[in-house]
Design goal:
By secondary structure, the chain is of the alpha+beta class. Helices cover about 55% and strands about 15% of the residues. The protein is elongated and about 90 Å long.
Length: about 150
């Protein structure tokens, strides 16, 4: 579809006249002005709320906000997890058990050792708990162990 230069110019003029008509109608109506005001105020309020949400969502360091965990805190959690591993590796019943070091966070300020996996019986679970307690990880222990699913 090809247009010649004159046809394009005439169509652009037609569009310009239509926009001018719409603009004139829009400016003259008090109801439309009210709608513009409501939309403008609503948009500004939404923008302010968005900015506030972003600012409060960003992590902060120091006394007011949650700082990133110190190297020592992370090292103590890793050391706690490592202290439990040798005890579990010596027993074949705990082959599917995994030990994870969860670093300190706002929810867990001291961090924790997370024990995950499955054991065959309640007796095995009790023994697992005894082995972990005997290792004294030095940080809280979280349990996600299924009993009887092995």
């Amino acid at each position: 579809m090809r247009f010649d230069r004159d046809e394009i110019i005439s169509r652009l003029r037609e569009l310009r006249y239509r926009f001018d008509d719409l603009r004139a109608k829009f400016r003259d109506s008090p109801e439309d002005r009210r709608k513009i005001l409501i939309i403008g105020v609503g948009g500004a309020a939404a923008l302010v709320l968005l900015v506030v949400r972003v600012v409060t969502w960003l992590p902060r360091g120091g006394k007011d906000g949650a700082a990133s965990p110190s190297h020592e805190a992370v090292a103590s959690v890793v050391k706690g997890a490592e202290s439990v591993r040798p005890e579990l590796e010596s027993d074949a019943r705990f082959a599917s058990i995994k030990i994870f070091a969860v670093p300190p966070s706002e929810k867990e300020p001291a961090g924790k050792v997370l024990v995950m996996g499955a054991v065959a019986s309640e007796a095995d679970f009790t023994r697992l708990k005894q082995l972990v307690e005997k290792a004294h990880p030095g940080v809280p222990v979280g349990w996600q162990v299924a009993v009887g699913l092995k």
